[in-house]
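in:
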């Protein structure tokens, strides 16, 4: 019988844990799931009520399963799927993430920046660098390209490899499931923009 880390297993979606291919996927990504830096992604909010941990584990497992059908590299799909949103700074502030290492993960969030430096445009590149910082032995041109290009078509250059196309597609499909959360965030963004414009008009 396998030994599963409780910090990992109880935070995975049941659709992953109960799948007959779970052990195969887990043996590929176990070290990432147990890593203290990746564990912190439980506190990074991806959208309203879903963490980066929740989102990334689902994308990784679904990309891994899709790799079997599309005859792609299952290891690349599992690893790049798990690390595709492994950016260094949180983009949604919560009390938990603020408290983590004295605000280290939210410092950049508070700096004013032009639209093209917003999270959606920059986090793929950030993640493609950040994963090598914490997992240098996993550095691989396919994995790097999958992570760097996963925001296609928002970032205009498409993925170079089949595995990257799988991750990009699974990521988008998952985002549709997460639509209620996206609507929630969009409402917050619209509200914040309205307040900023109101302030500007007052000047
Ligand atoms: Fe992303
Ligand atoms: Fe994503």
């Amino acid at each position: 019988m396998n030994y599963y880390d409780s910090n990992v297993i109880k935070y995975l979606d049941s659709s992953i844990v109960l799948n007959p291919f779970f052990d195969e996927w887990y043996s590929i990504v176990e070290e990432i799931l147990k890593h203290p830096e990746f564990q912190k992604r439980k506190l990074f909010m991806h959208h309203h009520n879903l963490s980066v941990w929740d989102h990334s584990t689902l994308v990784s497992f679904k990309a891994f399963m899709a790799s079997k059908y599309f005859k792609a590299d299952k290891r690349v799909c599992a690893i790049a799927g798990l690390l595709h949103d492994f950016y260094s700074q949180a983009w949604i502030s919560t009390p938990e993430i603020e408290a983590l290492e004295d605000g280290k993960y939210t410092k950049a969030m508070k700096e004013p920046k032009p639209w093209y430096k917003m999270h959606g445009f920059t986090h793929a590149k950030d993640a493609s660098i950040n994963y090598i910082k914490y997992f240098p032995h996993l550095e691989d041109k396919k994995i790097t390209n999958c992570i760097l290009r996963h925001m296609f078509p928002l970032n205009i250059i498409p993925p170079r490899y089949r595995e990257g196309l799988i991750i990009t597609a699974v990521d988008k499909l998952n985002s549709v499931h997460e639509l209620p959360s996206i609507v929630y965030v969009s409402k917050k963004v619209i509200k914040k923009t309205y307040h900023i414009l109101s302030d500007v008009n007052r000047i």
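note: The pocket of fe (ii) ion (ligand 2) is lined by residues 55, 59, 84-85, 171 (CB under 6 Å).
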